[in-house]
């Protein structure tokens, strides 16, 4: 297999674009070559098959959509209260909105995983790892709520992201006076973490 790291990364990113735009059925090596602007047959020199390409797209997307360490460090200078949790949820929404293509590709990976057992195992492992990492971060940071709160936030934000990035009209005006998506982010956090709930570090929300 070819081993040019920069070319491989460009092909994987091209795969992300194709996957988000055409879905898994349109993710062919020829389509990736065309998207990347390279000679036909290039992708076949870098990936053993579609399953390999899909796994590498999964790995790449978790890097592309990961929090910026500098942003996290800046946010962690704030009091460990509900407003900080809201700020982290805003950051999550902002990252997904900025890289809408990447997030749509993640959704396509979920659908493809239901049809490919080998992808289901690896994708489940990576997403579960992200959730467990979020729980560990929440505990270590002393943020309000515990693992159950993080799990519910995860499920609620997943639903909000899905609707906002695919069918935004569903949410417009559903709660009068509540903006989309920021107002809904605030409502989600306020519902999951009522005022006065103590954090893991013993810090009360205002």
Shape call: elongated
Radius of gyration equals 19 Å
Low-confidence stretches: 198-206
Note the run of SSEs as H and E: HHHHHHHHH
Q: Counting H and I runs of at least 4 residues, what is the number of helices?
A: 9
Helicity range of the residues? 55-70%
The count of DSSP E runs of length 2 or more, i.e. the number of strands, is 0
The N- to C-terminal Cα distance equals 57 Å
* CATH-assigned homologous superfamily of the largest domain: Tetracycline Repressor, domain 2
Main beta-sheet annotation:
none
What is the CATH level 1 assignment of the largest domain? Mainly Alpha
Assess the beta-strand content as a share of residues.
under 5%
Mean pLDDT: 93
CATH fold node name of the largest domain: Tetracycline Repressor, domain 2
The secondary structure category is mainly alpha
- CATH level-two architecture of the largest domain: Orthogonal Bundle
Count of individual domains: 2
Describe this structure in words.
InterPro entries: Homeodomain-like_sf, HTH_TetR, TetR_C_31. It is a single chain. This protein is an all-alpha fold and 206 residues long. Helices cover 66% and strands 0% of the residues. It has 9 helices and no strands. It has helices at 5-22, 29-36, 50-64, 69-75, 82-98, 100-113, 117-141, 147-166, 182-192. The N and C termini lie far apart (57 Å). The model is unreliable at 198-206 (pLDDT under 50).
Structural topology:
Blueprint: H1 5-22, H2 29-36, H3 50-64, H4 69-75, H5 82-98, H6 100-113, H7 117-141, H8 147-166, H9 182-192
Helix pairs in contact: 1-2, 1-3, 1-6, 3-6, 3-7, 5-9, 6-7, 7-8, 8-9
